[in-house]
UniProtKB/TrEMBL annotation:
CDD domains: Trans_IPPS_HT
Keywords, ordered alphabetically: Isoprene biosynthesis, Magnesium, Metal-binding, Transferase
Source species of the chain: Siccirubricoccus deserti
GO MF assignments: metal ion binding; prenyltransferase activity
SUPFAM superfamilies named among the record's database cross-references: Terpenoid synthases
Family: Belongs to the FPP/GGPP synthase family.
Entry cofactors: Mg(2+)
An annotated GO BP: terpenoid biosynthetic process
Protein name per its UniProtKB record: Polyprenyl synthetase family protein
A Pfam family annotated for this UniProt entry: polyprenyl_synt
Length: 303
């Protein structure tokens, strides 16, 4: 795997991409002066700065395979990060996970108030689709429509929202889920958005279907490995390391693959998924090397 030589270049690329995405978000979410200024302030607070920008990085690297313009790719990356940010704002609300800490700073409802947090999430979600639908994203309306369709599907009732509902139902019932049910919950809650992030560059680049499917499959396996790694971190890392409250899955009695399989088997499962993810990139040349490294990085990270 040669992680020693590859990790710094990947981390450098990810940090550079995160900075570029923050710059793009800064332009797409301007600070307003009018009476609704607190809404924009909360949107910016939620979306700009912090986070690994895994989803945005996937968009940029996928787009690079097909020579898509950086500015177009950054718009799509920003739209997906807005949807991700909105989901975190709403997830953290007292009615959902009731969290005070996110990305090492107070959650939006703590920094502002609950009503503002709800509106900021709503506004981030809708603004993401404005960005995708605008001509600057792609000159072909069919491409823009496809981006809107795929992102709304990944975020909607058969995606992220559906997954969050399953999560809440499982917690309310107090009955631990079995392995297939946990897999489905995680596929919907986090997996679908990561899948689309990996696929989006191919949509932008009007890539052949086989290549689009390969990137989607890569995203699916990467997302599943990422989620297991997240659960492993929740079970083993400190709040200082991750910048969010850890150990909460066990306290809430949440079913995770780590809880079901134990740490060792969960790690093996994540490694299997990473091997599969890398295999999906066999048809791509050296340009996909950062995506290959990312698969390894996902299960070795500590935050």
């Amino acid at each position: 795997m040669g992680m020693t030589t590859t990790a710094p270049s990947l981390q450098g690329a990810m940090a550079a991409a995160a900075a570029e995405i923050d710059q793009a978000l800064d332009l797409l979410l301007p600070a307003e002066e009018g009476p609704e200024a607190p809404l924009f302030a909360a949107m910016r607070y939620a979306a700009i700065g912090g986070g690994k920008r895994l989803r945005g990085f996937l968009v940029l690297e996928g787009a690079r395979q097909f020579g898509v313009s950086r500015s177009a790719a950054l718009r799509v990356a920003s739209a997906i990060e807005m949807v991700h940010a909105y989901s975190l704002v709403h997830d953290d609300l007292p009615a959902m996970d009731n969290d005070d800490l996110r990305r090492g700073k107070p959650t939006v409802h703590r920094a502002f108030d609950e009503a503002t947090a709800i509106l900021a999430g709503d506004a981030l979600q809708t603004h993401a689709f404005t960005v995708l639908a605008e001509e600057d994203t792609h000159s072909d309306p069919a491409v823009r429509t496809e981006l809107v369709r795929c992102l709304s599907k990944a975020a909607g009732p058969r995606g992220m929202c559906g997954g969050q509902m399953l999560d809440m139902l499982a917690e309310a019932a107090g009955v631990p889920l079995d392995e297939p049910a946990v897999g489905r919950l995680q596929t919907l809650k986090t997996g679908k958005l990561i899948e689309f992030s990996a696929e989006a560059g191919a949509v932008l680049g009007k890539a052949p279907l086989a290549q689009r499917h390969a990137l989607l499959a890569y995203g699916r396996d990467l997302g599943a490995a990422f989620q297991i790694a997240d659960d492993i971190l929740d079970a083993t890392a400190s709040t200082e390391e991750t910048g969010k409250r850890t150990g909460k899955d066990a306290v809430a009695g949440k079913a995770t693959l780590v809880g079901l399989l134990g740490l060792d088997r969960a790690r093996l499962q994540a490694e299997r998924l990473v091997t599969q993810a890398r295999a999906h990139l066999d048809g791509f040349g050296e340009r996909a090397d950062l995506l290959r490294m990312l698969a390894d990085f996902v299960i070795e990270r500590r935050s």
